[in-house]
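Tip: read the tokens left to right.
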């Protein structure tokens, strides 16, 4: 009986599978070694505060933790660092290398500051039992509006549970807004200290309206900065543009396009509205500097960085009547607000704000006194130092 030799194609396939398996193991080992080396460097550093988790590349929480690092008088490190996040992703840290991080022990006296992500909160609580001082900042939790008033996703529920059940054990708990402090006390019996979300006024002051003018070919438009997210409610701004065809509108937002707005938000983008994607926070300042009015249609905010940026630019702002935005403008003293969902009210308040030459100047004064990161960071440094 003759022995049948395997087909050449089968031999090649098996060899490729074997090579791929060995290659994957080797790459995983390299990643593990890189993280171990990074943790070793952290353990030998003179860092005063570790802030995490640094997973988001953009958004309010990202802006918040980067500003802390920028303006603190203490040595701050983001966990993971931006350099590490260029090589890895959140899944790597949470699923593959979490055990490595949980074994890591910072130098005695290091302060841990958590934001949002459950695994980092879990790590901070573990280290707290080993004698480390833990600060947690409460940002906006997930509400039904984040899921378009449908059932929230499991990961959103998990985040909320971590904030409610784990973060409450931090040595110091901070709220970025007064309304949030009251909300946490009433709904979760969690006592927090009010330390407002800040705005990077230095960055705002770098905004140059001529740069935006050169890119757009026009200025003095009505601006909205949003993203593809039901809680940001971008469709409402499109309806505002439709209602005011004699004015120019610009919408900047990650993931937004004419096609997406029509498909996901059932609105047709009019000719007087330009939709843009892929603009950095730094470049957004140029577009705010060139606008006439900044409009926020969000359904929920903590204490919105965007609104504070518009105020820092001395621009009139129009916001929806949700708690965080209302707090930023002091319930109408430093900006205009409209009834969420009422396009006619939004239109009226936008037209009114276009005529107001004073409110933006007063709004900037409010920002400089209370929300400028150069002011907020000093208060935070006192907390880090146990004062």
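Filled-in amino acids:
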């Amino acid at each position: 009986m003759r022995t049948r030799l395997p087909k050449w194609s089968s031999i090649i396939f098996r060899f490729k599978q074997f090579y791929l398996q060995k290659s994957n193991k080797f790459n995983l080992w390299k990643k593990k070694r890189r993280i171990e080396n990074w943790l070793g460097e952290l353990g030998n550093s003179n860092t005063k505060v570790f802030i995490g988790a640094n997973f988001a590349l953009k958004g309010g929480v990202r802006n918040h933790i980067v500003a802390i690092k920028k303006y603190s008088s203490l040595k701050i490190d983001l966990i993971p660092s931006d350099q590490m996040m260029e090589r890895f992703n959140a899944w790597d840290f949470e699923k593959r290398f979490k055990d490595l991080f949980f074994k890591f022990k910072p130098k005695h006296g290091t302060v841990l500051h958590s934001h949002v992500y459950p695994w980092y909160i879990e790590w901070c609580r573990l280290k707290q039992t080993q004698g480390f001082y833990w600060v947690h900042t409460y940002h906006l939790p997930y509400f039904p509006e984040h899921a378009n008033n449908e059932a929230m996703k499991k990961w959103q529920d998990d985040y909320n549970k971590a904030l409610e059940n784990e973060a409450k054990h931090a040595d110091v708990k901070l709220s970025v807004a007064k309304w949030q402090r009251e909300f946490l006390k009433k709904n979760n019996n969690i006592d927090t200290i009010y330390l407002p979300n800040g705005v990077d006024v230095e960055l705002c002051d770098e905004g140059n309206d001529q740069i935006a003018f050169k890119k757009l070919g026009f200025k003095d438009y009505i601006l909205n900065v949003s993203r593809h997210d039901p809680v940001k409610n971008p469709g409402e701004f499109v309806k505002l543009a439709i209602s005011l065809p004699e004015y120019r509108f610009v919408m900047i937002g990650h993931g937004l396009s004419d096609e997406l707005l029509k498909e996901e938000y059932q609105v047709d983008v009019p000719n007087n509205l330009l939709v843009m994607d892929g603009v950095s926070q730094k470049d957004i300042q140029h577009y705010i500097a060139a606008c006439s009015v900044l409009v926020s249609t969000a359904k929920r905010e903590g204490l919105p960085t965007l609104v504070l940026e518009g105020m820092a630019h001395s621009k009139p702002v129009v916001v929806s009547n949700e708690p965080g935005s209302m707090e930023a403008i002091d319930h109408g003293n430093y900006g205009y607000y409209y009834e969420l969902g009422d396009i006619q009210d939004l239109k009226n308040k936008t037209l009114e704000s276009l005529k107001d030459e004073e409110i933006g100047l007063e709004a900037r004064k409010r920002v400089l006194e209370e929300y400028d990161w150069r002011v907020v960071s000093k208060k935070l440094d006192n907390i880090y130092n146990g004062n």
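The first strand starts at residue 49 and ends at 52. The chain is about 50% helix and 15% strand.
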